[in-house]
Design brief:
The chain has helices spanning 19-25, 27-45, 63-66, 73-78, 82-114, 119-130, 137-147, 154-161, 175-203, 207-215, 220-245, 252-258, 264-267, 270-280, 284-313. The chain is mostly helical and 318 residues long. It has one domain (75-313): MetI-like (MetI-like fold). It is globular and about 75 Å long. The N and C termini lie far apart (58 Å).
């Protein structure tokens, strides 16, 4: 037998184009990226130099670098401040309650919305559920004060007519009701908007999986349980990690607009307390120390949540 000659070609070497040629071709993308990088540097990294205020007794006349060093004085004050401890309890309580209620509500609403087959009706529901997100907390506070008013509020009127309560309730004037009130209001404001991410993931699920499940006799709830929910597990884990990382900054908007003397013991959150100490009382060094500690705690919580998620589900941010 004659041996066949193998025509083996050497791999072609791709000549790398000069940097300026590649830069000119990708100039639009570079501009987009560097604008974002410049914004981050100017508004996020350069202001971080002000962290040194936490280790000084800052005053306007001496400036940041001229103010005297005091070491860890303000950090020691943190652990002796009653209102700081109160703010920690309120922040953690509101955050845990919010995460525990908002995630199930968002996922259930997403699943039910996805199952609607009437396109027009589905669009109406989506539009109505999205609208509260575009209402600022300043306007939302006016709406809530009107709806929850003990004398003229629609909520009290409905509850009384249905026989659930005997006399009107001051929802924003009672400490024991503040947490649940602001959490429910926050869920109402963000429920529709939060479904966008989950609906985007659902739209990418292969339709053949649903068709195969139908052929096997799976009903709607079975398809949601065995196809849709597993597909959402990754984004649920990511959103949960981000929520855990943002616990320290929870509740500023609601506290700023809905806090009063009657509910202050439950509305005083960490972010609002930093605002009160720093801007209202002009104690910049102490407020900076609190903010610095909150940043460290937030980063630690996010890294911890990401590690736990990777070990339990194999999914995380990184």
């Amino acid at each position: 037998m004659r041996k066949k000659e193998l025509n083996i070609r050497a791999p072609r070497t791709v000549e790398k184009k000069p940097f300026w040629v590649r830069f000119k071709k990708e100039a639009v993308f570079h501009i987009m990226i560097w604008f974002g990088v410049a914004f981050l540097i100017v508004f996020a990294y350069i202001p971080m130099s002000g962290i040194i205020i936490a280790f000084k007794d800052y005053n306007f006349r001496s400036g940041i670098f001229g103010s005297p060093w005091v070491g860890l004085k303000h950090f020691r004050q943190l652990f002796q401040d009653f209102f700081m401890g109160n703010a920690v309890i309120n922040t953690v309580g509101i955050s845990v309650l919010s995460i525990g209620l908002s995630y199930p509500c968002t996922i259930i609403f997403t699943l039910l919305l996805n199952e609607l087959r009437n396109v027009k009706f589905k669009r109406v529901i989506q539009t109505v559920s999205y609208l509260p997100h575009f209402i600022s907390w300043a306007i939302m506070a006016v709406i809530l004060n009107s709806m929850l008013s003990p004398s003229e509020g629609i909520i009290n009127i409905v509850l009384q007519n249905l026989g659930f309560i005997d006399k009107p309730i001051a929802f924003l004037g009672r400490e024991d009701l503040y947490w649940i009130t602001v959490v429910v209001a926050s869920i109402w404001k963000s429920l529709g908007w939060n479904t966008i991410v989950y609906l985007a993931v659902i739209s990418g699920i292969d339709e053949s999986l649903y068709e195969a499940a139908k052929i096997d006799g799976a009903g709607r709830f079975a398809r949601m349980r065995y196809i849709t929910l597993p597909a959402l597990s990754g984004i649920i884990a990511i959103m949960l990690i981000l929520s855990v990382g943002g616990i320290a900054g929870t509740g500023f908007d609601t506290s700023f607009y809905l806090s009063n003397d009657l509910n202050y013991n439950r509305s005083n959150t960490l972010s609002y307390y930093v605002y009160t100490i720093g801007l209202r009382r002009a104690n910049f060094s102490y407020s900076t120390a609190i903010s610095f500690l909150l940043s460290v705690v937030s980063a630690t919580l996010m890294l911890t949540a990401n590690t736990i998620s990777n070990k339990l589900t194999g999914k995380g941010l990184f």
